[in-house]
Amino acid sequence: MIEAAKLDGVSTLKIFKDIIIPMSSATGIYVFIYTIVQGLQYVYTPIKVITQGGPNYASSNLIYMAYHEAFTLYRTGSSSAVAVITVIIFMLLLVLEFRFVEKGVYYEN
């Protein structure tokens, strides 16, 4: 497609905007979601090792809170509730992503 556009005399900016971005949007969405999930997984270790949630749990997040409630304070009910809330938030983000972002994805064939 790019070669055909170049042969037709289409400008480089128009090729990038109309061909390259739509064809690579599926990969971009995958990388975006993967980065969010990996970021939430890898932020646990610095919180646990360096701050233990920080002063008054200022540097904590939901994943560390679920761990802390279950394995430090032995409140498994609260930990389960936080884990369910985290899953609901991830599902909501996934639904929003499929509803609004996935519309602009171009799949060949």
UniProtKB/TrEMBL annotation:
Residues annotated as domain ABC transmembrane type-1: 1-97
Pfam families cross-referenced by the UniProt entry: BPD_transp_1
Gene3D superfamilies to which the protein is assigned, alphabetical: MetI-like (1.10.3720.10)
Keyword Iron set for record: no
Main subcellular localisation: membrane
Presence of keyword Membrane: yes
TM region positions: 20-37, 81-101
Subcellular location: Cell membrane
Keywords: Cell membrane, Membrane, Transmembrane, Transmembrane helix, Transport
Stored InterPro entries: ABC_transporter_permease, MetI-like, MetI-like_sf
Membrane disposition: Multi-pass membrane protein
Family membership: Belongs to the binding-protein-dependent transport system permease family.
PANTHER family: ABC TRANSPORTER PERMEASE PROTEIN, INNER MEMBRANE ABC TRANSPORTER PERMEASE PROTEIN YCJO
Protein name per the record: ABC transmembrane type-1 domain-containing protein
Source taxonomy: Bacteria, Bacillati, Bacillota, Clostridia, Lachnospirales
